[in-house]
Amino acid sequence: MSYLHMVAAGKVAPLVRAGLIAGLVIAGLAYPLAALAGLGVKAGTEALQSLPEELIEVPTAQTTYVYAKDNRTLLTMFYEEHRKPIKIADMSPYITQAIVASEDTRFYEHNGVDAKGVARAFVANQKAGGVSQGASTLTMQYVRMALRDGAQTPKEALEATEQTTQRKLREMRMAIELEKRMSKQEILERYLNAAYYGHRAYGIFAASQVFFSKLPRDLDLNEAALLAGLVKAPSAYDPATQDRQAATSRRNYVIDQMLKIKAITPQQAAQAKREPIKLKLSAPPNDCISIAGKHNDWGFFCDYLKSWWKEQPAFGSNPMEREENLRRGGYRIVTSIDPKVQASAMKHILDKEKRRSRIAHGQVIIEPNTGRVVSMAVNRRYSLDQRDNEKHSRFRKLKGNYPNTVNPLLGGGSMAGYQAGSTFKIFTMLAALDEGMPLSTSYYSPQRFYSKYITAPGPATCGVHWCPKNSTASMTGDQTMWSGFGKSVNTYFVQLEQKVGADKAVKMAERLGLRWRTDIDRKLASPEHASGWGAFTLGVSDVTPIEMANVFATLAAEGNYCEPLPVRAIKTRDGKDATFKGKVIAAPRCHRAVSADVARAATDAARCVTGYGAARGGCGGWGTSEMVYGTLKRPVAGKSGTTDSNKSAWFCGFTPQLAAAAFVADPDNPEKNVGSNRSTTSKFTVAETLKDALKGQPKAKFTPPSDDLVSRWRDRDRDRDRDSDYDSERDDERDDEQGD
After folding, report:
1. Angstrom distance (rounded) from CA 680 to CA 363
2. How many Å apart are CA 577 and CA 583, to the nearest integer?
3. Angle formed by the axes of helices 165-181 and 40-49, to 10°?
4. Sorted alphabetically, which keywords does the UniProt record give (predicted)?
5. What is the distance between the alpha carbons of residues 632 and 612, in angstroms, rounded to a whole number?
6. What is the Cα–Cα distance from 245 to 253, expressed in whole angstroms?
7. d(C-alpha 7, C-alpha 343), whole Å
8. What's the CA gap between 488 and 739, in Å, rounded?
9. d(C-alpha 204, C-alpha 189), whole Å
10. What is the pLDDT of residue 463?
């Protein structure tokens, strides 16, 4: 019997097992069998054996899922190819039956290459004078998918799919070897997880979501037949088009094939074919821009997450590689955002500034001792669509960035931020405390102070020297750190800065996480200029809300600085914690920035600001933000800040459990006056949001500072007697009396 007759008679299985398949017709090619057979058994065998036989499976691209703090609320996904592998046990039996019926009815009989199918394809192609029928088994198709998905270069991708004898022979050889080490069920599972169904859906999990918004285990006969039919030509049989004739015909073909292999009954087949195609299409979110509309405000947090991810060396050698890893790595990311706190923050923000206001009002909340970002909220929509935006507040011919924008208004991107005014006094006070100067350090603070600092180029207020003044004449007189900070006395803090050194205040800001983002800030913060940067203490540098929230979170953590962190857990595709150099990537990254006693002392002064009152000193009768304690009704400290000409207005507040920073400014024109009527906006937003966030939690108390940082040794007894109304014992009693 000739080789050709053996093929036609289906008696080539022994030859296949021996590896002698070089003469078989190649699916998708019209080469005559005789031409291949003419190579001879020896030549054909040598040609075949020169090809690789083992399929090296490179991990395929998988979708990364991003969840809120509760590990259940989906924020968004990142993917190039939407894919999530699942076990065959989690698939409907209909889909496994349908794919075998439509693609390889002899799947359970062959050993990777179907000799009868090859012969049938050869005869059909000879009669047609071209390619009319293929002979690829499910195993061979899976090999092709694996080679395609694992391609590292365009050349490898082409070799995996091009119509050549070499490619088909390689598939055959690898298919035979694959079936030696894998069961049919394992191969079928991998096939269904790799197949492309259209609409960027790779694998049966994604396809079930996209077309029917359900899990694969819940697919019925009709749905399974439809999806199985798509594998052959997703575009040609796309059921989402208006004309569903092609999709219906293909579905019915699959149903007939299922009947043919006796997977279903004639009654089931007839009923299924009578039913119209019913889709429940869904577009799985991809990237920050496609977060569900009702939670659009999460987009700014998501954007911060992406920026953070692209800075992590664990995910690649450069930002491009890291972003690609985010889209292909199949991670499960549990973020730090708390949906309830975020919703509360948005409510209080929008109560004060609508989205269509040119003034941006935003707030960031951070958890002390972990650095985890609990909320990032701003009165904007996270959207690229600016068609309906209002006019730019500076360049009137342009569209402004409101109400829609993707600019990182809260931090984490390339924006410099906004001047934060007197909130920067915290750095001068911390630097002084760090040098051993006590809270009782006293200076006579006139309405205007002629400093030693030389003014920057431009009009000088007092000749060549910088001479700031206080906002009100009532601040004139002797002030300590408690009263000077509580009332925000400019002329006190300029004197304190002169004593400790402006360069030390700048260094303290750097120790607490500030980064200089403008040329002028970088120049003035440099070692050769920092000592002369007198205006630094009044907040003339640009800063982002996330940085300032974290500064005060460090105080709340008693000097334990933690990097701002948008994640609680990152799991790899195999369910393990993502690590780098032996450390869990999502773990807090903390170190001591200042001593606990320095942080406690600064906190004691910051209590004067909010109306809560200091534990170890006198606040001077009033503070700039007494409504904060009046609203929150629990231990709270902080600092307000307003710039010259009301270009921005800030409040940074903290309890032992949470720290927040809120601002109002015009991001399109940071020099624009926001109006004096907004001076309390951020104060109320912080107080109201923290009140909601901490509802039901214990009223944690601050630890007072030690005697060493309260007063100088020679003044200690006098200061303690004078300020006995504010000692820690009375402080505790007052908390108990005021209660809830």
Report:
1. 14
2. 9
3. 70
4. Carboxypeptidase, Glycosyltransferase, Hydrolase, Multifunctional enzyme, Protease, Transferase
5. 10
6. 12
7. 70
8. 29
9. 10
10. 80
- Of the chain, the percentage scoring pLDDT greater than 90 comes to 75
Closest by CA to 192, choosing from 180, 202, 181, 182, is: 202
Pairing of strands 360-366, 579-580: unpaired
Cα separation, 205 vs 184, whole angstroms? 20
Q: Give the lowest-confidence range in 71-80, 82-91, 172-181, 360-369.
A: 172-181
Crossing angle, helix 184-194 and helix 138-149, to 10 degrees?
Answer: 50
d(Cα 21, Cα 51) in Å, to the nearest integer? 12
Task: Give residues with Cβ within 8 angstroms of 328, minimum separation 6.
Answer: 61, 62, 79, 80, 81
Token couple for 618: 């006198």
User: CA–CA separation, 347 vs 640, rounded Å?
Assistant: 21
H or E element, residue 84: none
Tokens of 472: 């009100």
CA dihedral 625, 631, 634, 637 (to 10 degrees): -20
Residues 251/226, Cβ–Cβ less than 8 Å: yes
User: Coil, helix or strand for 653?
Assistant: strand
| 708: its two tokens | 């060493």
Token pair for 268: 């089931």
pLDDT at position 50 over 60: no
**CA–CA separation, 30 and 195 (whole Å):** 26
Strand partners, 584: 579
Three-class secondary structure assignment of 485-519: HHHCCHHHHHHHHHHHCHHHHHHHHHHCCCCCCCH
- Cα(707)–Cα(684) distance, rounded to whole angstroms? 33
Q: Note the pLDDT of residue 126.
A: 59
For helices 596-610 and 545-556, angle between their N-to-C axes, nearest 10 degrees: 110
105-135 per-residue burial string, b: 16 or more CB within 10 A, e: under 16 = eebeebbbbbbbbbbbbbeebeeeeeeebbb
Give the 3-state secondary structure of residue 361.
Answer: strand
Q: Do 339 and 69 meet the contact criterion of CB atoms below 8 Å apart?
A: yes
d(CA 165, CA 143): 15
Residues β-bridged to residue 579:
584
* Alpha carbon of residue 394 to chain centroid: 32
- Kindly report, residue by residue over 452-469, the tens digit of the pLDDT: 998 755 445 788 889 999
**CB-based contact 292:284 (threshold 8 Å):** no
Helix (H, G, I), strand (E, B) or coil at 376: strand
DSSP type of residue 454: B
Task: Express each pLDDT in 404-443 by its tens digit.
Answer: 999 999 999 889 999 999 999 999 999 999 999 999 999 9
Q: Which residue has the tokens 């991003």?
A: 66
Model pLDDT, residue 617: 95
CA 409, 412, 414, 417 dihedral sign is positive
Determine the residue type at 386: Q
Q: Is the peptide bond before 667 cis (omega within 30 degrees of 0)?
A: no
In this structure, are residues 197 and 231 in contact, taking their beta carbons and an 8 Å threshold?
yes
Residue 693's nearest CA partner among 337, 234, 432 is 337
Structure tokens at 672: 């624009």
91 three-state secondary structure: coil
What is the rounded distance in angstroms from the CA atom of residue 558 to the CA atom of residue 447? Answer: 34
Per the DSSP assignment, residues forming a β-bridge with 723 are none
Q: Return d(Cα 202, Cα 191) in angstroms, integer.
A: 10
| 3-state DSSP of 565-608 | ECEEEEECCCCCECEECCEECCCCCEEECCCHHHHHHHHHHHHH
Structure tokens at 692: 């909601």
pTM: 0.85
